[in-house]
Design brief:
heterodimer, A: about 180 residues, mainly alpha, 2 strands, about 5% strand, B: about 160 residues, alpha/beta, Oxidized Rhodanese, domain 1, 2 domains, five-stranded parallel β-sheet, 6 helices, about 40% helix
Chain lengths: ~180, ~160
């Protein structure tokens, strides 16, 4: 079958991607366990404290007090925990990676928004310091932004990895 | 494409599981809430650093010192480890992130008629503000927020207590 130029480019890019060092099975396992540890720890800090977590979410001034905010406070820690367990077991890795990708994109957005607000308020970027409500206590905003960007990249790698080994799932490609 | 569809369907299943487990646990937890029937909370404006809002008054270090010197009620909203390392003399620990374990011991020590000063680690930390909101919703209306926090207090060379609570 003759491929068009565009199809050929996509196919070669895909092949190159699949053999890329970043998709080394041991590295992927390390990424999975690292991300799982982060999110399981973060979840455990917030589970059972919905009011405190609702206040943390509210402090970002993105969602006002109401049923959607409280629902997030109740469900989000469990979603993080389930995604963490999914990464450890290798069951539904792509689904959990997709969720963590979306969550980290959201965290980056709200932390960046709050940081910009603080900088506009006169605090130098290097001094912006707050508790992001992530479960790890107060830290410098620039540090948190870098961390979340790294988690986002790792989630993206896990999502697009051609297959995952060391899983309890039967299908490597779909795990 | 198949991979993406699989990822989306797995994500939906995980989300559904989180909803079921989250609400199930919330219904059984002693700290559980009804997200659809929550009381109106106290809004504290983001610019509350310089103004009195929602009944919560922001005070500076001089006012904080006067209150400490007069033996007023002071609450430390930081974590226990930070409190143990050093705190404003006479302050009571009420770890905002572990309120469930502290409220029963701390609430009997507080009076709704008395001014209560709350602080956390430093000006950009907002745990004291979040805790103040919780106390306000519990009926404590005379709240003073020392935004400078422990960093400003200790940085000014004022006395620090180091004994654990």
């Amino acid at each position: 079958m003759k491929l068009t130029w565009a199809q050929g480019r996509i196919a070669s890019a895909g092949n190159l991607g699949a053999s890329c060092w970043i998709y080394n099975p041991y590295l992927l396992l390390a990424f999975r366990l690292f991300l799982a540890a982060i999110f399981i720890y973060a979840a455990v800090q917030k589970i059972g404290k919905p009011l405190a977590f609702a206040d943390e979410i509210h402090s970002y001034s993105v969602v006002d007090y109401g049923a959607p905010l409280y629902t997030m406070a109740v469900v989000l820690p469990w979603l993080e925990l389930l995604c963490g367990l999914s990464l450890v077991t290798g069951v539904f890795v792509r689904g959990s990676s997709l969720i963590l990708l979306a969550l980290n994109a959201m965290f980056l957005f709200v932390i960046a928004k709050r940081t910009v607000g603080a900088v506009h308020g006169g605090t130098p970027l290097s001094k912006v310091y707050f508790d992001c409500g992530c479960g790890f206590g107060a830290t410098y905003a620039w540090k948190k932004l870098l961390e979340d960007a790294a988690y986002l990249v790792i989630a993206m790698v896990l999502l697009f990895a051609p297959n995952h080994r060391f899983t309890l799932s039967r299908s490597r490609r779909l795990s | 494409m198949k991979m993406l569809i699989s990822a989306i369907s797995q994500a939906i299943l995980l989300l559904a599981a989180a909803l079921v487990v989250g609400f199930g646990f919330n219904a059984l937890s002693r700290n559980g809430i009804n997200p659809f029937k929550m009381p109106v909370r106290v809004p504290v404006a983001a610019d509350s650093l310089s103004a009195e809002t929602g009944g919560i008054k922001v005070i500076d270090i001089a006012a904080a010192k006067r209150l400490v010197d007069s033996g007023g009620c002071i609450i430390d909203a930081r974590r226990k480890a930070d409190y143990d390392e050093g705190h404003i003399p006479g302050s009571i620990l009420l770890d905002y992130y572990d309120m469930g374990n502290y409220l029963d011991q701390v609430l009997p020590l507080l009076s709704k008629e008395q001014e209560i000063m709350i602080y956390c680690s430093e000006p950009s930390c907002d745990d004291s503000e979040l805790l103040a909101r919780q106390l306000y919703s519990l009926g404590f209306k005379k709240l003073l927020l020392f935004k400078g926090g422990f960093a400003e207090w200790s940085g000014a060379g004022l006395p620090v207590e180091k004994d654990a609570q």
